[in-house]
């Protein structure tokens, strides 16, 4: 079977395919699994009960369930749901939005696929053709973006600066001078895009960093995509107070219901200009007819009443914050005496371990760990988007490029701790 260039690009080897394969594929017989690699959130009892209650209400409400599963919604989303989203954010934060500023896609992953290919690639006009690129201001960046461009070489990543601290921790920062220099010299940006909190590192861009990025995007007449899958006001997996919800006329805000307990229902929410929303609705009609309705139906009354946000505050954030602290303590306990650093745990369901003396690439280290049942994600996959011709240093030259692992700490605490212990044990074995 011969595939098109499009098929070869999207079906070839990639980090996200390996990650999703690791989630579902069993390990060899007799190997105890320590699954620290995927993106599955934890099942929080209070959140699960909340959705069960909402589903029972639907089942007991005349033919509401039959209508829910038996009818397509609009390609833009369930009308009552998008009206509820618009009302919530306009009333709560004073954002100047209506239902025309909201679209729902089958998860924020598919929404980003639409957005990236709307805003990058070849642009034709009466003046000829030009190529625009998606700029990621903070690499390492989310593995799931790396292969979403239909055209090749349309992603550019700015390698992060970092600050180290005395207690074996560090934090990434946007290298604004390098970013601004690139934008000024190349004039090829279709948009800027960041995750907040950052997947894979748990870094949270501060309010001042977000405002500066938004200002830069305005200067060059491009959007700023903020992927808020772990952020505020839901699921609220943010452990710092220097981060508030942000929206502006040039911002495309991506949200999700996945990390607040509904990953399989694939409900991504986009807040953006009316022009972007209309385009997303058109794309969704062509690619999927419409988005799934069940997640929207379960969440709508919870958002309208304020319960979803309150539950995120009362249960989701404390749940993950407690687990994050325990995982960080395990890193410090088992890595003691080695040359290591953990990224400050500021949000998301991931932690990022830097092993400075690792003598083999992280991809090889990952393979060694997997033989022992410990599934992680090697750091190299998160450094993508080279543009050496555009004046950027090769991402492979970043000092952290092949010395990091992403760890999902959302699983059972004993499994996470034992997995970290095995990682530390092998780090000693493979240290310089």
Overall description:
The chain is α/β, with parallel strands linked by helices. Helices cover 40% and strands 18% of the residues. It contains 13 helices and 16 strands. The protein has helices spanning 5-11, 15-24, 45-59, 64-70, 79-93, 108-119, 176-186, 207-219, 274-288, 294-305, 307-334, 362-371, 413-429; strands at 34-35, 102-105, 121-125, 128-139, 155-159, 161-164, 169-173, 189-195, 224-227, 251-256, 268-271, 340-343, 350-355, 374-375, 377-378, 404-408. A hairpin with a 4-residue loop joins strand 6 and strand 7. The model has no long low-confidence stretch (mean pLDDT 94).
Give a topology summary.
Elements: H1 5-11, H2 15-24, E1 34-35, H3 45-59, H4 64-70, H5 79-93, E2 102-105, H6 108-119, E3 121-125, E4 128-139, E5 155-159, E6 161-164, E7 169-173, H7 176-186, E8 189-195, H8 207-219, E9 224-227, E10 251-256, E11 268-271, H9 274-288, H10 294-305, H11 307-334, E12 340-343, E13 350-355, H12 362-371, E14 374-375, E15 377-378, E16 404-408, H13 413-429
Parallel strand pairs: 1-14, 4-5, 4-8, 7-12, 8-9, 9-10
Antiparallel strand pairs: 2-11, 3-4, 6-7, 10-11, 12-13, 13-16, 15-16
Helix pairs in contact: 5-10, 6-9, 11-13
